[in-house]
Structures are given as C-alpha cells and as structure tokens.
Amino acid sequence: xxxxxxxxxxxxxxxxxxxxxxxxxxxxxxxxxxxxxxxxxxxxxxxxxxxxxxxxxxxxxxxxxxxxxxxxxxxxxxxxxxxxxxxxxxxxxxxxxxxxxxxxxxxxxxxxxxxxxxxxxxxxxxxxxxxxxxxxxxxxxxxxxxxxxxxxxxxxxxxxxxxxxxxxxxxxxxxxxxxxxxxxxxxxxxxxxxxxxxxxxxxxxxxxxxxxxxxxxxxxxxxxxxxxxxxxxxxxxxxxxxxxxxxxxxxxxxxxxxxxxxxxxxxxxxxxxxxxxxxxxxxxxxxxxxxxxxxxxxxxxxxxxxxxxxxxxxxxxxxxxxxxxxxxxxxxxxxxxxxxxxxxxxxxxxxxxxxxxxxxxxxxxxxxxxxxxxxxxxxxxxxxxxxxxxxxxxxx
Length: 396
Fold this sequence. Notes:
CATH superfamily of the largest domain: Lipoprotein localisation LolA/LolB/LppX
Radius of gyration: 22 Å
Number of strands: 21
Oligomer: single chain
C-alpha cells in the first residue's frame, strides 16, 4: 500500500486538488471510498491528521467492495451499460504497488464483461471489454523512485502546515472532519477553489484514521451537493492479498491504445528539451496557420505552446486563468482517420460553427467541442458551459 499512502504532502494535496482529472485514469481516481457506521476518530487539526496518515504503518493489503458513481454526462444521453460511463459496483484488491479495481457490468450489458483497472507501479492499464479496448499509460514518476535513495521520509508537521498555508491562498480547505467510512474511523477533507474554478465546485478525500489508506474520493460540480464522480468502498478488510487477485489477462484481439505522454527529448540522464512557446516560434514548427487572437470571449491569451499531437506537431493556445480558462488545440486534419469525441455508447450532438461541422461533449464539469475548417482540426476544452465554448469557437 506504499504507493497509495507513503507519498509526499505535495502529492497527497495534489490528489485532492486534481481529482477532477482523475476519472478512471489515475492513481488518485483508484483510491477507495465509502460510507457507514462505526466509531469516529478524535478531532485533529488537518496538518496533524495528514501527518499521522503518512506515518501510519502500511497494511499488508486491502480487499474492498466498492461503488463507482459517474454523473458527468446526462443519463438520457447514454446508450448501453458501460460501467465506465454509467457507474457500477465492484471490487478492489491492493498490495504493495499493485492494485486491481473491477467494475462489474450489469446483467443488461449482454455479457460484455467487467471493466478492469490495473496498477502495477507506474503502469496503469484499463481493460474495457464492452469497447474491446485496452488502454495503457505510464504514470509520471515521483519522489525518489528508482533513484536508489530509499523511501521518501515522512514530512514534518511544520512542512505539512506550510504546504496547507500556501494551498489555502487559492483554495478553501474544510479541515479534517472526523467520521466513519465503510465502517472505519476516517477523516475527510474538502477542497474548493477560491476563484477561477469554472464548473468545479470542489473535491473531497477521506482516509482511514488508523492505516492512513485513502478511503473515498469525490468530485462535485458548482452548485450541486451530490458528487458527479465518486469512488467509495462499502466494505473493506486489511490483510494479505493473493497474487492471483491482482492480475487479469487482457482479452485476445483487443485494440490497444497507449495514452502515455511522449518520452522526454532530453534523453535518459539529460536535461529536458526547452519547450517551444510563443506564437511566432510555434508557427514556424507547424504546417498550418495558427488562429490565436489576443483575446477570446473576453479572456486574454496566456500562452501558445508547441505540442505533439499523435506524432504530428500541433499548437496549444490557452486563454484566461485557472479552471475558468479555455484551451484550444489546433492540428492538421488527418484524412481518413476518425476524430470523433464520443466514447462508445455516447452519441454527441452535431453543431455548426460558422458553417463548419463539429460535435460537442457537454459534461457537468465542462465542455469539449471539436470542429474542422480549412484542413485544421480545432478542439476547445474548458470548465465552462456549452454556450461559452460555442461562443469561443465562433470567435476563432
């Protein structure tokens, strides 16, 4: 359980602040969660509760029954019963740096099979039988991993308090709220953006008061009291886990999608290449004309950056600050290759952007919009409502 618990304060707080990015795709999103009866732990200041969690002895393993809630997209827009899109009950096993999460498809799924999420060190694999697809990702390394320096020491109480003080300049923290989660004594903290939060209302993280293991992660939309994303355990036990429970074979003939970021051009042991930024510098690297007005729907242009877009050079143009900003990805349209936004079972409404055809994904936490014009594909994304995304697209 060291991967889930023995992490620096910075990374633990990043888990809370970055929950919105973690839906079924990161170690944070695989944290346990729950609610239930049992003795609540004594009240503690947040810094002390975090310090005790990081210093607690790691259990030999964890076995749990879990529930995954996904209300990102209106249920009326969904077809089928893919548990990644609709939410599901399931099970979780974890030991050392290995973790397996199983989201069980309902009987109405027609025997498509359960979704499996596997974590082995920094390697994340998601097996989606309904889409006959295997997604793979190498997660960024952190701390002293593979450096030979040994485990990262538990940060001092003063260091944790200093990190919380810096964080409170941009976010509101609830403090460590004592309660019970899956029948276990637990502390819960809620973090909410002070400004520029877009549609994000906040995130909540709960952890076991005795073992320091994360027990619940939830993401809330602005103005809503119920989570739009939540992973929680309904029952949990600590103890050794059989090796066979931590692995599952990939289906034969499944499509494999690698979501890992490209390797650093700096090479092993070398310095990373300097990023290419600035409109003129990026324009010289791409085979299309970048559209990057100084302002977009009232938001000032922040940066133009060269990116790798599926092996081809592209441009990332950002506007505004924080989650309330808008990002525009521009790339040369690849003829003959599908470029739709829609996951399996999620038909998207078609839209017209000044005569150019496009499609739009509207979620409780933001909007993604894509259209093509003149051999260039534009993808806009931001924690903004559809009307704001469409206005920005038409202003390009």
